[in-house]
């Protein structure tokens, strides 16, 4: 009887779900810690100056509002962009924890950085899913999660030279708007919050 009860407990989907939630929570916690400190175990990141012509596309944010990407960017002093999706459990949690820590370090709202996460899984990333995702990382005003038609999302990815045909093949890439028009700094690789701020200071200092 004891063995049978143990076997049933092991097959209980509620217990399995709880274990899954604990693992997911541990992953998010680890991501937050990694984003706040130097990633000693990760390969060195690389940077490159690129030109981006922002496309005139209409996207949908986490509040189900229609927004234009160039309107989010124009006139903002500090803008960072990354490409993620709501069910990602590998790269995206680390990138998003970095954005979250950056908001805590630099502030949010007017005067704070404008953070833009673009979904690479628009077929599934609804405003509800994106809202839940941002709450998980305690996102503050100034951080937008955008989805839209697949063609429009592909257009945005191609504009940043970050197009991928499959969400599972995405890479950790962050873009920081430079001071010159249409100029951005592309960062390939996982970076800490301190690294993001250091790269931003380089841009501001004209280095």
How would you describe this structure to a colleague?
The strands form 2 sheets. The protein has a 6-stranded mixed sheet. It has a two-stranded antiparallel ribbon with strand order 2-3. It is globular, with a radius of gyration of 19 Å. The protein contains 7 helices and 8 strands, in the order ααβββαβαβαβαββα. The model is unreliable at 1-41 (pLDDT under 50). It has helices at 2-11, 13-36, 69-73, 91-106, 127-136, 150-159, 193-205; strands at residues 46-51, 58-60, 66-68, 79-84, 114-119, 143-146, 173-177, 183-188. α2 (13-36) packs across α4. The chain has a single domain (3-205), classed as Glutaredoxin. With 207 residues, the chain is α/β, with parallel strands linked by helices. The termini are far apart.
Q: Report the order of strands and helices.
A: HHEEEHEHEHEHEEH
Helicity range of the residues? 40-55%
Mean pLDDT: 83
> How much of the sequence is in beta strands?
15-25%
Q: Count of helical segments? A: 7
Task: From the alpha carbons, calculate the radius of gyration and give it in angstroms.
Answer: 19 Å
The figure for the number of domains is 1
Q: What overall geometry do the principal axes of the alpha carbons give?
A: globular
In terms of per-residue confidence, which ranges show pLDDT below 50 for 5 or more consecutive residues? Answer: 1-41
Please report the distance between the alpha carbons of the first and last residues: 72 Å
Q: Tell me the name of the CATH class.
A: Alpha Beta
By CATH, the architecture is named: 3-Layer(aba) Sandwich
Number of strands: 8
């Amino acid at each position: 009887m004891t063995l049978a009860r143990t076997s049933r407990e092991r097959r209980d989907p509620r217990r399995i779900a709880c274990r899954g939630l604990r693992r997911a929570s541990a992953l998010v916690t680890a991501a937050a810690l990694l984003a706040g400190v130097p990633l000693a175990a990760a390969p060195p990141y690389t940077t490159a100056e690129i030109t981006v012509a922002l496309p005139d596309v209409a996207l949908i944010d986490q509040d189900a509002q229609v927004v234009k990407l160039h309107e989010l960017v124009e006139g903002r002093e500090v803008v960072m962009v990354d490409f993620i999706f709501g069910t990602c459990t590998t790269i995206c949690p680390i990138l998003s924890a970095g954005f979250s820590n950056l908001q805590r370090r630099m502030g949010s709202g007017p005067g704070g950085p404008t953070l833009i996460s673009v979904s690479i899984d628009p077929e599934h990333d609804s405003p509800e899913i994106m809202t839940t995702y941002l709450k998980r990382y305690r996102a503050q005003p100034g951080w937008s999660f955008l989805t839209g038609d697949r063609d429009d999302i592909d257009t945005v990815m191609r504009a940043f030279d970050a197009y991928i045909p499959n969400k599972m093949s995405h890479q950790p890439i962050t873009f920081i708007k430079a001071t010159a028009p249409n100029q951005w700094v592309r960062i390939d690789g996982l970076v800490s919050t301190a690294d993001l701020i250091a790269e931003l200071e380089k841009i501001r200092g004209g280095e």
